[in-house]
């Protein structure tokens, strides 16, 4: 069972207790949980051939209405989210420089239902990566879901210099979860991402499934979206494929089951608009 699914089930067990009001918020805890996972992936740094360090201090910025709803439960929710990050890091063989903490903050520039995730690496007194209990060290938008406005990442003050990452395929190389970005012709890399309601989601794997299910790569909380609605396939060119959804997809104004994507393509699923982006470098 996936880490996100286990987290969701733990929260469901608390719905009739202190978390009952949390689920009335426009921002759902499971969406924040998915954003924290992606924040780890997007900011993972190779420390040496056996250790990949990820942030351990996270700040979730919420709109004023969402913050007012969630802040009374910030301690318990923060602990649950920190536990999810710990479980996910163990699964991905990531390590931390110090204890994991998740904080909620109010951001008056955000509308209800939108949020940002920021992260940083804070060292413990030892200034050495801390492996997870039971997991020996082994050789990752933007707003909201899928990548954060991050503090500058790098070795904390007092830590030994971080060696340069080995070349792809070399000893100790461990790409971000889901794979690395495919190189474009001529050796340049093509960065790909999608934007949903102002939130950026990096595309760092050959396929990206969008849907309402917690098992989807990008979860879209829209009743008009199927559990596994469609799939973006990276390539030259990138394409989008309907996965047998109930309401289908519209790409650049055309109902279709499959379409080629270009920078700026607009995809509509249910009542949600997705903008596909790509750029070299």
TrEMBL record:
Highest taxon of source: Bacteria
Annotated FHA domain residues: 208-256
Bias-annotated ranges (Pro residues): 153-169
Region annotation Disordered: where it falls in the sequence: 120-187
InterPro entries from the UniProt entry: Cell_Proc_Reg/RNA_Proc, FHA_dom, FhaA_N, FhaA_N_sf, SMAD_FHA_dom_sf
Listed CDD domains: FHA
Alphabetized UniProt keyword annotations: Phosphoprotein
Protein name as it appears in the record: FhaA domain-containing protein
Organism placement in taxonomy: Bacteria, Bacillati, Actinomycetota, Actinomycetes, Kitasatosporales
């Amino acid at each position: 069972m996936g880490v996100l699914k286990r987290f969701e089930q733990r929260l469901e067990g608390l719905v009739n207790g202190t978390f009952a009001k949390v689920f009335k918020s426009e921002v759902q805890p499971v969406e924040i949980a998915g954003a924290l996972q992606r924040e780890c992936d997007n900011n993972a740094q190779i420390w040496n051939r056996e250790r990949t360090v990820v942030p351990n201090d996270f700040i979730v910025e919420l709109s004023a209405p969402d913050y007012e709803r969630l802040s009374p439960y910030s301690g318990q929710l923060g602990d649950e989210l920190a536990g999810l990050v710990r479980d996910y890091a163990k699964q991905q063989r990531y390590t931390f420089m110090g204890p994991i903490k998740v904080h909620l903050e109010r951001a008056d520039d955000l509308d209800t239902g939108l949020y940002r995730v920021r992260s940083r690496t804070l060292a413990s007194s030892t200034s050495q990566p801390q492996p997870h209990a039971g997991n020996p060290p082994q050789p990752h938008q933007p707003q909201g879901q899928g990548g954060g406005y991050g503090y500058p990442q790098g070795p904390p003050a007092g830590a030994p210099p971080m060696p340069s990452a080995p070349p792809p395929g070399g000893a100790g190389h461990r790409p971000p979860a889901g794979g690395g970005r495919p190189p474009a012709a001529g050796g340049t890399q093509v960065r790909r991402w999608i934007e949903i309601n102002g939130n950026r989601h990096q595309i760092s794997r050959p396929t990206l499934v969008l849907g309402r299910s917690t098992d989807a790569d990008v979860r879209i909380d829209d009743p008009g979206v199927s559990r596994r609605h469609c799939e973006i396939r990276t390539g030259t060119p990138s394409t989008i494929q309907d996965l047998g959804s109930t309401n289908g997809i519209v790409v650049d104004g055309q109902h279709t089951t499959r379409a080629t994507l270009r920078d700026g393509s607009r995809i509509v699923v249910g009542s949600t608009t997705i903008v596909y982006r790509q750029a070299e470098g």
